[in-house]
Amino acid sequence: MLTVHGKGNSMNQTHKVTKDEYAMFVAYCKTLIRKLGLNDWHIAFFNTMPNGDDDIASLVIPCVQGKIAQISLNPEWPEAVTDEMTRYAAAHEICHLLLSDITTSSLYGEEIPSHVRRNIDRAEHAAVNRLVPLLLKELS
Ligand SMILES: [Zn+2]
């Protein structure tokens, strides 16, 4: 999940993601999926956000048992969507997909305390933020 910064501010100008921008996001995701060998996943792409999460730029919802994932790009951004932002969002979500077997499995079982969930999320994002710059080189 990549959070949108600047939404809900006083400017309140939003940019509607164009078909070309969305197509570019999907193409970047597919390129990274291929490069990382995540071809065993069945992925559906959406230019809508589930649950109307409008402060989120992009999101992956993986189901590791079935190797099925939903990747969403928010149709509205707080500013014009640049190629750099599109690449970043794609790399961020594909890193989450790469780690999902580990991160999702660690949340199975009994009731997981919220502080443990937060720690896992923090550790996952620390790994994602280290991997994203490496993946961005693959897209350049
Ligand atoms: Zn994230």
Write a compact overview of the structure shown.
The chain has 140 residues and is an alpha+beta fold. The chain is built from 3 helices and 6 strands. A hairpin with a 4-residue loop joins strand 4 (56-63) and strand 5.
Contiguous low-pLDDT stretches (5 residues minimum) are: 7-11
Described by the principal axes of the CA atoms, the overall outline is globular
The profile of the biggest β sheet is:
4 strands, mixed
Summed over residues and divided by their number, the pLDDT gives a mean of 88
State the assembly state of the protein chains. single chain
Query: What is the straight-line distance between the termini?
Result: 22 Å
Encode the helix/strand succession as letters.
Answer: EEHEEEEHH
**Tally of distinct domains:** 1
CATH third-tier fold name? Arc Repressor Mutant, subunit A
Protein architecture, described:
The chain is an alpha+beta fold and 140 residues long. It has a single domain (2-139), classed as Arc Repressor Mutant, subunit A (Orthogonal Bundle). It is 47% helix and 18% strand. The chain is built from three helices and six strands, in the order ββαββββαα. It has helices at 19-35, 83-105, 114-139, and strands spanning 2-3, 15-16, 42-46, 56-63, 68-73, 76-77. Strands 1-4-5-3 form a four-stranded mixed sheet. A two-stranded antiparallel sheet has the order 2-6. The two termini are 22 Å apart. Zinc ion is lined by residues 1-2, 92, 96, 125, 128.
